[in-house]
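User: Could you go from structure to sequence for me? I need the amino acid at each position, not a summary. Structure tokens:
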């Protein structure tokens, strides 16, 4: 009856949710710096930007140095 159908629906939603989470985790693992191309595993911090853009701590430090040299 209705209860069975709603249980099935919850189960489907749960499986869908888990699948999306697994996909999202894999995407995060494969994320890399948009500037130097280093992967998440190769840097300390990967700062997420808009869309799929990211910048790593090393590029942030390099950018900060360059900006400091100009002033
Ligand atoms: Zn970088």
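Assistant: Here is the amino acid at each position, in order:
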């Amino acid at each position: 009856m209705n209860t069975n159908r709603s249980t099935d629906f919850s189960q489907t939603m749960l499986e869908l949710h888990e699948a999306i989470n697994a996909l999202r985790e894999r995407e995060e693992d494969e994320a890399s710096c948009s500037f130097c191309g280093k992967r998440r595993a190769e840097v300390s911090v990967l700062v997420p930007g808009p869309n799929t853009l990211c910048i790593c701590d090393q590029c942030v430090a390099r950018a900060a140095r360059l900006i400091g040299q100009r002033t």
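One structural detail worth keeping in mind: Residues 1-30 form one domain.
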